[in-house]
Design a protein that fits this description.
The complex is a heterodimer of chains A (135) and B (681). Chain A is an alpha/beta fold and 135 residues long. Chain A is 39% helix and 16% strand. Chain A has one domain: Response regulator (Rossmann fold, 3-Layer(aba) Sandwich). Chain A has a five-stranded parallel sheet, with helices on both faces. In chain A, helix 1 links the parallel strand 1 and strand 2 (34-37). In chain A, helix 1 (15-27) crosses helix 5 (120-132). Chain A starts with 7 loop residues before the first strand and ends with a helix. Chain B has 681 residues and is α+β, with helices and mostly antiparallel strands. Chain B is built from 15 helices and 20 strands. In chain B, 26% of the residues are buried. Classes of the chains: A alpha/beta (135), B alpha+beta (681). At the A-B interface, helix 1 and helix 5 of A face helix 10, helix 11 and helix 12 of B.
Chain lengths: 135, 681
């Protein structure tokens, strides 16, 4: 379970998906701060406090793999090679059910790999489960 | 393909070497050989020319044979000649001796008379008696005294004392003897004559009247010794005229003075003899063995041709062969001149016909032997030449055969080389094609994969968004929406859901075969139990495994997918409240045969092919929650693994799906376990 002030960084380009996460958190009555980055670069700026962005130090990153420009796997590669951020905990949240993607993600030591369920209620349950079991 | 390469290289090397070698043969050896042969074959009479050694051999053989024959003949002839000459010489020697003996008698008479004062008739007869007995050919031996007019009467007295009717007679030209008119004349009457009986008429005959005798007398006196003359005489036995000689020896008064001073005055008379030459000759040869030699006696004469005096025919000669033509025909002869006092005779000896000829057959043996040898040589040479020609012909034939074979070989090598080159090009082209096709196929597969991947993300995401948005609208407006709007929203979400399932199925289908490398040992009985559990069939449905199930090595996920899809297909389309599903297996050849049977509504035969096709379902989409991908996926998986699938079914009689899976038993194999399990939902 996340403590009260621990924040979450969602890296997602699709607006509906962002809304889905926000709605799922709200539905689960989780009020921890949620930061959203639309690209990998933006995420790095936020994590480092660069380019006028407020620096965030999230307890957890929810990462979509299908991102414009820098893909999720590229982001993983980059963050694991960054000495300041390499210990960052990450959960992959993607619509890809490909074993290839799953294997690649676990190569970068992610905490979990969640295929976005088709129905919102399922998604809500999945988010609840993850955060409840968070240590 | 890589295995071909060394062979091709080897073959190419061999071909190249072979073609080089055969080319060399053709260019160097055969062309020379062939040129030589064709050159000879150009002229049509070359075959005849080939026989010139035969002609040469024959010619030389004949020449040698004839030469040897002639040599032998001439040698034989020479031998015969030598033998003949010896024989002839022997005979002539004997004849000469005999003549000498004969003439000696006359000389003896002359000496006897000269030595005696007077010679009486009896004394004379006594003296010549032995000679007459021993010596042949004596016709007449006589003493002819010189009677001149002074002692004419005295002589007659003396003569008549021993022979009273003695008278000096003369022959008249008619041949009658008359009494001589002695007046004033010198007479040469024959006083004594022996043999008396034959010569009786000659007694007292004045032979000084005979011209031949007279000249003979005169010449002998001037010469002072014996003289001889030829004269034909009458043979006393045959009464025929034969050749004879007259011999006179003058007898002078004994005196101490030189003989050269002797004059007519001192002459006492002549000893006279007449001889038959033939008899002398015959007597001379009498004691010799017959020598096959004819002897002819010719009178030598300075004025005229030789006159044949006598011919002696060999006693070997047949009587009917007495012919002079032999002289001309005979090749050999021998002649010698016999000189006696003032006379010379030519003696010609000729062999009797075919005597002293080559008596042996040596020459003829040589000739015919030579001919025979030549003939043999000719035959042998002809045979040899024939063989040579035959061999040459054969060689030519074989060479041309060899040449054509080599040419064929060459041709073949060329063709093969060309074919090989073509093949190489073809191979390369093919390789190129295959490579490009493979690359193309790979590119397409990659493209497809990419497509599927993109589809899974980019199609699913908006669908999910639509679904979520619809749900949120329903949630947010839950109080404001009427029931029909709510139902429409539900339908919207349902259709979106189906589309999501279709995409998901499509993705799954496209993934088949991509991950088939992972093989694990699978107990199919356990696998099916797991699947049955996860499918959690409705109450009233039983899933039963009949008989043994194999333990095999396979891709667990995919084989599981097959069973799962088949079982769920049976459950989904059973159509009844209660149902039975039976699963069984057996080994068929190199395959496991698995069968999944149900007792449901069945499938009409016309749809048996259709059920395995993508997105094909037999129900309308309103009542259908299946995507139409399950069986297509099953078929694809089975075929990808080298198996096959078929369905046996009829309407209301249930359906049996039977598929073959390659036989790949696990190592510690008890392929089938015998536990018959019953699984109940």
């Amino acid at each position: 379970m996340l403590s009260k002030n621990e924040s979450i960084l969602l890296i997602e380009d699709d607006r509906v998906d962002i809304m889905t996460v926000q709605r799922a958190l709200k539905k689960n009555k989780i009020s921890n701060p949620l930061y959203v980055a639309r690209t990998g670069h933006e995420a790095f700026n936020m994590l480092r406090g660069d380019n006028g962005k407020e620096q965030v130090t999230p307890a957890l990153i929810l990462l979509d793999l299908n991102l414009p420009k820098m893909s999720g796997i590229e982001f993983l590669h980059k963050i694991r090679n960054d000495p300041d951020l390499s210990e960052q905990r990450i959960i992959v949240l993607t619509s890809s059910n490909e074993p290839k993607d799953r294997d690649a993600a676990f190569e970068y030591d992610v905490d979990d790999y969640i295929v976005k369920p088709h129905s919102f209620s399922e998604f809500t349950r999945a988010i609840a489960t993850i955060l409840e079991l968070w240590e | 393909m890589p295995n071909n390469r060394p062979f091709t290289t080897n073959a190419a090397t061999i071909m190249e070497n072979l073609s080089k070698f055969s080319g060399w043969i053709t260019n160097h050896v055969l062309s020379r050989l062939y040129a030589g042969l064709t050159k000879e074959n150009v002229s049509s009479n070359s075959i005849l020319w080939g026989y010139y050694p035969v002609a040469l051999v024959t010619l030389i053989g004949l020449i040698i044979s004839v030469g040897l024959f002639m040599q032998s003949r001439s040698w034989e002839k020479q031998q015969a000649e030598v033998a003949f000459h010896e024989t002839a010489q022997d005979r002539i020697l004997l004849i000469k001796r005999e003549i000498k003996f004969s003439l000696g008698i006359i000389q003896d008479i002359a000496s006897f008379i000269e030595a005696s004062e007077t010679v009486g008739r009896r004394e004379f007869r006594k003296f010549v008696g032995p000679a007459l007995k021993n010596q042949a050919g004596i016709e007449t031996l006589a003493w002819v005294p010189r009677v001149d007019f002074k002692n004419h009467d005295q002589f007659l007295d003396f003569a008549r004392r021993s022979f009273p009717p003695f008278e000096i007679k003369e022959l008249t030209p008619s041949g009658q003897s008359t009494s001589s008119k002695a007046e004033g004349q010198i007479h040469y009457p024959i006083l004594y004559v022996q043999p008396y009986q034959d010569n009786k008429p000659m007694l007292g005959l004045n032979i000084g009247k005979d011209t031949q005798v007279k000249s003979l007398f005169e010449k002998s006196v001037s010469k002072g010794s014996m003289l001889i003359a030829n004269r034909s005489i009458i043979d006393s036995q045959t009464q025929q005229s034969v050749a004879g000689i007259v011999v006179v020896v003058p007898v002078f008064e004994k005196s101490d003075e030189d003989q050269s001073d002797a004059t007519q005055h001192d002459l006492r008379g002549y000893a006279l003899g007449i001889f038959n030459i033939g008899e002398i000759i015959e007597r001379a040869l009498e004691n010799l063995r017959p020598g096959s030699v004819d002897i002819r006696f010719y009178q030598e004469s300075t004025t005229s041709d030789e006159t044949l005096l006598y011919t002696h025919f060999s006693r070997n000669r047949q009587l009917d062969q007495h012919s002079l033509t032999d002289l001309e025909e005979s090749g050999i002869n021998y002649s010698e001149i016999i000189e006696v006092e003032n006379l010379s005779w030519s003696v010609l000896c000729t062999p009797v016909y075919d005597k002293f000829e080559a008596k042996t057959f040596t020459s003829w043996i040589i000739l015919f032997g030579g001919f025979a040898f030549t003939a043999l040589l000719t035959i042998y040479t002809a045979n040899l030449v024939g063989q040579t020609n035959q061999i040459r012909h054969q060689v030519a034939e074989r060479t041309s055969l060899l040449r054509s074979t080599v040419e064929e070989l060459n041709q073949e090598v060329m063709e093969r080389k060309a074919a090989e080159a073509e093949l190489q090009i073809l191979n390369e082209t093919l390789e190129h094609h295959i490579a490009s096709r493979t690359a193309e196929a790979e590119r397409r597969a990659e493209y497809l994969e990419q497509f599927a991947y993109v589809t899974s993300h980019d199609l699913k995401a908006p669908l999910r968004a639509v679904s979520n948005l619809a749900e949120w609208i329903e949630e947010d407006l839950t109080d404001k929406l009427d029931s029909s709007s709510k139902e429409q929203l539900a339908l919207l979400r349902d259709r979106v859901r189906r589309m999501h399932d279709l995409i998901e199925g499509l993705l799954e289908y496209s993934r088949v075969g991509k991950t088939s490398d992972v093989e694990a040992t699978i107990d199919t009985r356990e696998l099916i139990q797991e699947i049955t559990d996860s499918l959690s069939p409705q109450k009233g449905f039983t899933i039963k495994i009949k008989g043994e199930m194999p333990v095999l090595k396979a891709d667990r996920l995919q084989l599981g997918q097959v069973f799962s899809n088949l079982i769920s297909n049976s459950l989904k389309h059973h159509g009844g409240r209660k149902g039975k599903i039976r699963i069984s297996s057996k080994q068929v050849g190199n395959f496991y045969e698995f069968t999944v049977c149900d007792n449901g509504q069945g499938i009409a035969p016309e749809y048996h092919d259709k059920v395995f096709k993508m997105f094909q379902t037999l129900k309308s989409s309103d009542f259908n929650n299946s995507t139409g991908i399950g069986l297509a996926l099953v078929k694809k998986i089975v075929i990808e693994h080298g198996g096959s699938i078929q369905v046996n079914s009829a309407v209301n009689e249930g359906a049996c799906f039977t598929f073959l899976w390659p036989y790949t038993p696990a190592e510690n194999n008890q392929s089938y376990n015998n536990i018959e399990g019953k699984l109940t939902g």
